[in-house]
Design goal:
mainly alpha
Length: 449
């Protein structure tokens, strides 16, 4: 999923000059908005893995078929609901995010196309949660590899107007992504029918069952709130980024994509761990759960430390790969040094999330994600950047003096507060998550049958 946006950012950066900067900025603005509206589907996917993996571990295959029917109902209703809400509130959101006037109309058009594609993204999330719950992470990956490769290929044809295609520039990336997500949904249906037809719900199992829907929502809603709170936090931070213009918007977009490139393998291991935790809790094999956690932690740390070192040493080159603009490269170099260190603590969070989500303890995951963003990261951004001094009631007396001293180290580059706050909040959140894990209550979560 991250590669879709990474491919768009790469090709749009080749448009050159202000056009490239504006186009990359639009892709950067779109990412947190799409993430926000897709977050409830991601939360339901967490519930799917937790519930299906438990039934798989306990050998209750009829229950898997029944719960699939209820997931189809819930996913479809929520997907349609959020598409309607997002399209009707898009203009308000872009204004709220202080989108620069020169890219406002194009950003709105770009977002309209990508938001409609959320419906097909939900198809994939539903299928992925089902497959991961059964322990099959390979099939969803195959589907994504096919459609991603196609996206990378057709992006330049639609962006630059190669061969018989018109030159759509930024809109070309939106059209390519929409088509590939549609194809992803079709492939999910084909694979489901061919590989796991015996789990296809019967007609009477497609009738809403309030008990099962409550069970889905009991686990899915905290996970959805957690995901949506994170994504809403990114929207708040995107408004902060947008206030500094297209150079900082472009750097933030590039940084998010490159960090995600290293995060995705670690996140994939986290998803795999969630399935293993759920299956072995269902089979009452606790020793194997702990053994899997230790192995996952070692692998995730290897990935994140390797990625961190590469980003720290090659920040300028990585920025230049997307946009060869001296102003963008200068900011990007500083940004990569900070996110390189921060990414290691992301790795700890991923492992803990795999444990909590696999066991169904989504409330704890929600608590430390809310803490990470709203108690730590967002306040730190506005504190370290000096933005709080723009509030009239904080411009007098000892409070103003205190805030000035806090923001003084970043006065030359106040937008660097975005990445310093990421570092501090990830360190504290990782410590909190590990503390919750050590208490061990995640082993006690029950799944209703």
């Amino acid at each position: 999923q991250t590669f879709y946006n990474l491919a768009d950012t790469f090709w749009l950066g080749k448009l050159g000059g202000d056009t490239a900067r504006n186009a990359v900025s639009i892709a950067g603005i779109a990412f947190p908005i799409i993430f926000f509206f897709a977050s409830f589907g991601m939360g339901l996917a967490v519930a799917g893995v937790a519930i299906i993996s438990r039934f798989r571990g306990a050998g209750e295959y009829d229950k898997i078929r029944e719960i699939n029917g209820q997931f189809m109902i819930v996913f479809s209703v929520i997907a349609l609901l959020f598409i309607i809400i997002s399209l009707s509130s898009l203009g308000f959101l872009l204004n709220l995010l202080q989108t620069p006037p020169e890219i406002f109309d194009l950003a709105r058009n770009y977002m309209q196309v990508t938001i409609i594609g959320i419906f097909f993204m939900f198809f994939f999330l539903a299928y992925q949660s089902f497959s991961h719950g059964l322990g099959d992470t390979l099939t969803p990956m195959k589907i994504q590899l096919v459609t991603l490769t196609l996206n990378v290929i057709i992006d330049p044809f639609l962006i630059f107007g190669w061969w018989i295609f018109p030159r759509y520039e930024a809109m070309g990336a939106a059209y390519a992504t929409f088509f590939c997500r549609f194809l992803t949904a079709l492939l999910c249906i084909v694979f489901f029918m061919r590989k796991t037809k015996h789990f296809m719900p019967k007609r009477h199992e497609l009738v809403p069952d309030l008990k099962q829907i409550r069970m889905i929502l009991k686990i899915g809603i905290p996970a959805s709130i957690s995901q949506s709170m994170i994504s809403f936090g990114f929207l708040v931070l995107q408004g902060f980024v947008n206030s500094y213009g297209t150079v900082v918007i472009s750097v933030n977009a590039i940084g998010n994509r490159m960090v995600s490139l290293f995060m995705m393998p670690a996140m994939g291991l986290s998803h795999g761990l969630a399935a293993i935790v759920g299956q072995n809790l269902g089979a009452n094999n606790i020793s194997r759960v702990y053994r899997s956690i230790r192995h996952t932690f070692s692998l995730v740390m290897l990935i994140m430390i390797t990625g961190g070192v590469l980003m720290y040493l090659n920040g300028a080159e990585l920025t230049r790969l997307f946009i060869n603009d001296p102003a963008v490269i200068e900011v990007g170099t500083r940004m990569f040094r900070l996110v390189a260190v921060s990414s290691v603590f992301f790795g700890i969070l991923f492992v803990m999330m795999g444990v909590f989500n696999g066991s169904g303890q989504t409330v704890s995951a929600m608590m430390f994600n809310v803490t990470r963003f709203y108690v730590l990261r967002v306040p730190l951004v506005y504190l370290l950047s000096g933005k709080l001094l723009e509030l009239p009631f904080l411009q007098q007396g000892f409070i103003a003096d205190f805030l000035s001293r806090i923001s003084m180290p970043l006065s030359a580059y106040p937008y660097d507060a975005l990445w310093w706050s990421m570092l501090f909040s990830n360190i504290i959140a990782a410590s909190l998550a590990f503390y919750i894990y050590r208490k061990g209550k995640w082993q006690e979560v029950k799944i209703d049958r």
